[in-house]
Fold:
Amino acid sequence: MMSFAPYAAEIGGLDAKLNCDGGTEQNCGSAQRLIYHKLNFGAACYAGAVQWNTIMSRRLMSLHQTTFFSYGFRPMFLGASLFAILSVLVWILTIRGAVDLPLYDDPYLWHTHEMLFGYISAVLTGFLLTAVPSWTGRTPVAGSLLLGLTVLWIAGRAAMLWGSGWNVAVVDALFLFAVLAIIAREIVASRNWRNLMVVGPVSVFALANLGFHIEVAQTGYAEYSTRAGFAGITVLLMLIGGRITPAFTRSWLKKQGSSHLPPTFGRFDAVSLLISVLALVLWIVWPDTYYCGGLLSVAAFLQAVRLGRWRGLRTFSNPILFALHGCFAMIPLGLLMLAAAPLDWAFYAAGLHVIGIAAIGGMTFAVMLRASMGHTGRPLKSDGWMNAALIALVLAAGARAAWSLWGLPAWMLDMSATLWILSFGVFAFRVGPWLLRPSKTP
Structure:
């Protein structure tokens, strides 16, 4: 906050200089009247500034105490779920000719970008802003800074909706770079070097978002940047999902009294990740080569083996936990489809949507649900509505992949979009109120 002490000292000096009988303007000479007016004006300014300073301090303190901006998952998860509904609804109505909006001057490019860099960026931010304090032991990002991030994300979505160009690119790209800077600052300040590896995929994701705009401006397409974005978020899922899924499973199985527990992250996991990263880098550059297909197949096999070591079938009675295993399984399935793209390019679109809807959409849904329950003081138990929503996401992925592979009627695409909308509609309706209210106390 600004300090007004120097100006207060000046006022005090003027007061000492002013020597009028009775201390009134009528008893002063002309020179003294000038000083008298300056004193009164300065005192009024000082009092107003102090009052403004007090009001703003109270408002900022009140913002920090507001439930909705007390933790990153609250505004980001609610925003992500609502945007997941609205963006797909707007897109499907636009391509069917029911509405007419600019949508980045190309509805298909807009849909690709907003699902990848709009929806996912909000979920990723909410997760990281919630997880990083537990990793680092530092105070969570909250209050005015969290409000600023939320507004910046909304501004990016609005800019993409109404047009294109460098002004849109700047507004949209700022959000992920701001998030990256905050996360890197928190990890470095706490010297939590173990989790610094998260910064790498997030950096790739942020650069891919910027590259999307550059590539569209230069070529009218966004093939390389789209693949880079998918690669970045897929690596994050294999990294973070590959840590939290077995960890949550191990904890739950221990409570069930089981002695058959998933192994901790080890050398096999590290080698599997390294090979998968190399396969995805090759896929970004040469997606239609047999060399890429072969390496993607190896990566798919290794990720499937990782998944098999996590005792996922034993979690069937815990739907939220089982969903993490089931949606992670969509990563090797999607990688296999991408590996088959040199044989038939239809597998390319099918693989992207299996990873995008079932793996990324499903895992982000399950993580948002679990984190929202845990951090608002609710038991980690799903119900029929949430189970149905998770199943709807998998069905949406199947319908979209089938539409790409076999050229099924257009209503299959509409059905996929409807299932996606219904799934996140359930999330927003059931979980949204939790995010707006204070956490329950045990």
About this structure: The longest helix spans residues 30-65.
